[in-house]
Design brief:
This protein has 62 residues and is mainly alpha-helical. 90% of the residues lie in helices and 0% in strands. It has one domain.
Length: 62
Amino acid sequence: MSYLFIFVAMIGINAVVYYNFGIPGVLILNFSIVTALLILIHDRIKPFEVSKKVKDDFDAGQ
């Protein structure tokens, strides 16, 4: 769920920047989407990497 939190937080930051400074937040919004996707991909890959390391350690121990 961390990617969803960062996505919502970046939209909030985007809104604050837009209302205070009048800077359109297209780049910030795109950054938030890219960040959310990267974290989602990392969350999908990380369990595999952990399980692979555990498996390698287990194989080395036998």
